[in-house]
């Protein structure tokens, strides 16, 4: 990581309470440097040396964003990210020394919102963090939509937008928070193509639009008879995604 004593990146935006960031890295030098650098730029920072400590912090505190190293002893950053994504949509920025395209895809497929390769300039890290937080606050340029009046049939499944439940027969299909938000958003505009960027804003899935692609892939596995040939959650080339009930 380059010397942080360079011209600084923009400071975190002033709000009633500064964003709280959890930094997870087993390299104590980087951990201390990031904690100091981010703190000096207006963030509240908590440090964790491994995934186990990160879990303890997540159980006790609310965070606005996580910065997670990939290569850690025991549970890796990717494994931690996948586990967090089971029940949380907190934005996650992955740090790793692996910078090949396949590594980037793996990071995003695990549920990360952004990816930064080591060595990196701390100023770029702050820009990435501020970018993710800014996208969370921005409202999409779409008119408001009301939930459907009743349940929507989706092949063998039925989605109840008011109870926000997906049913297959009498069985409730478990959805993560992100999947529920995505399905609810698409259901409110059934038959209308919505861009990845607007879906990210409407659902709170911040970061690279690739994160929406990952959520769509997961959701298709739960509602489609053949996720490879989706009938209900369709890709509209050049426009985004659309939900077709039936």
UniProtKB/TrEMBL annotation:
<dbReference type="GO" id="GO:0032993">
    <property type="term" value="C:protein-DNA complex"/>
</dbReference>
<keyword id="KW-0597">Phosphoprotein</keyword>
<dbReference type="InterPro" id="IPR001867">
    <property type="entry name" value="OmpR/PhoB-type_DNA-bd"/>
</dbReference>
<feature type="domain" description="Response regulatory">
    <location>
        <begin position="20"/>
        <end position="133"/>
    </location>
</feature>
<keyword id="KW-0238">DNA-binding</keyword>
<dbReference type="InterPro" id="IPR039420">
    <property type="entry name" value="WalR-like"/>
</dbReference>
<dbReference type="Pfam" id="PF00072">
    <property type="entry name" value="Response_reg"/>
</dbReference>
<dbReference type="Pfam" id="PF00486">
    <property type="entry name" value="Trans_reg_C"/>
</dbReference>
<feature type="domain" description="OmpR/PhoB-type">
    <location>
        <begin position="149"/>
        <end position="245"/>
    </location>
</feature>
<dbReference type="InterPro" id="IPR016032">
    <property type="entry name" value="Sig_transdc_resp-reg_C-effctor"/>
</dbReference>
<dbReference type="InterPro" id="IPR036388">
    <property type="entry name" value="WH-like_DNA-bd_sf"/>
</dbReference>
<dbReference type="InterPro" id="IPR011006">
    <property type="entry name" value="CheY-like_superfamily"/>
</dbReference>
<dbReference type="InterPro" id="IPR001789">
    <property type="entry name" value="Sig_transdc_resp-reg_receiver"/>
</dbReference>
<dbReference type="GO" id="GO:0000156">
    <property type="term" value="F:phosphorelay response regulator activity"/>
</dbReference>
<feature type="modified residue" description="4-aspartylphosphate">
    <location>
        <position position="69"/>
    </location>
</feature>
<dbReference type="GO" id="GO:0005829">
    <property type="term" value="C:cytosol"/>
</dbReference>
<keyword id="KW-0902">Two-component regulatory system</keyword>
<dbReference type="GO" id="GO:0000976">
    <property type="term" value="F:transcription cis-regulatory region binding"/>
</dbReference>
<keyword id="KW-0804">Transcription</keyword>
<keyword id="KW-0805">Transcription regulation</keyword>
<protein>
    <submittedName>
        <fullName>Two component transcriptional regulator, winged helix family</fullName>
    </submittedName>
</protein>
<feature type="DNA-binding region" description="OmpR/PhoB-type">
    <location>
        <begin position="149"/>
        <end position="245"/>
    </location>
</feature>
<dbReference type="GO" id="GO:0006355">
    <property type="term" value="P:regulation of DNA-templated transcription"/>
</dbReference>
């Amino acid at each position: 990581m380059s010397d942080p004593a360079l011209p600084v990146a923009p400071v975190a935006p002033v709000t009633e309470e500064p964003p709280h960031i959890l930094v997870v890295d087993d390299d104590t030098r980087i951990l201390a440097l990031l904690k100091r650098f981010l703190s000096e730029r207006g963030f509240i920072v908590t440090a964790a040396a491994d995934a186990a400590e990160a879990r303890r912090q997540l159980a006790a505190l609310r965070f606005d964003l996580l910065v997670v190293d990939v290569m850690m002893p025991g549970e890796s950053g990717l494994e931690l990210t996948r586990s967090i994504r089971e029940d949380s949509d907190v934005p996650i920025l992955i740090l790793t020394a692996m910078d090949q395209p396949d590594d980037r895809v793996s990071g995003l497929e695990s549920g990360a919102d952004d990816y930064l390769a080591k060595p990196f300039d701390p100023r770029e890290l702050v820009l990435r963090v501020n970018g993710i937080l800014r996208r969370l606050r921005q409202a999409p340029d779409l008119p408001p939509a009301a939930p459907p009046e009743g349940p929507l049939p989706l092949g063998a499944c039925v989605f109840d937008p008011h109870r926000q439940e997906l049913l297959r027969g009498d069985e409730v299909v478990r959805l993560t928070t992100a999947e529920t938000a995505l399905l609810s958003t698409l259901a409110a505009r059934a038959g209308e193509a919505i861009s990845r960027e607007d879906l990210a804003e409407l659902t709170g899935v911040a970061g690279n639009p690739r994160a929406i692609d990952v959520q769509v892939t997961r959701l298709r596995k739960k509602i489609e008879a053949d996720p490879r040939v989706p009938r209900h959650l369709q890709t509209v080339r050049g426009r985004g995604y659309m939900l077709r009930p039936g």
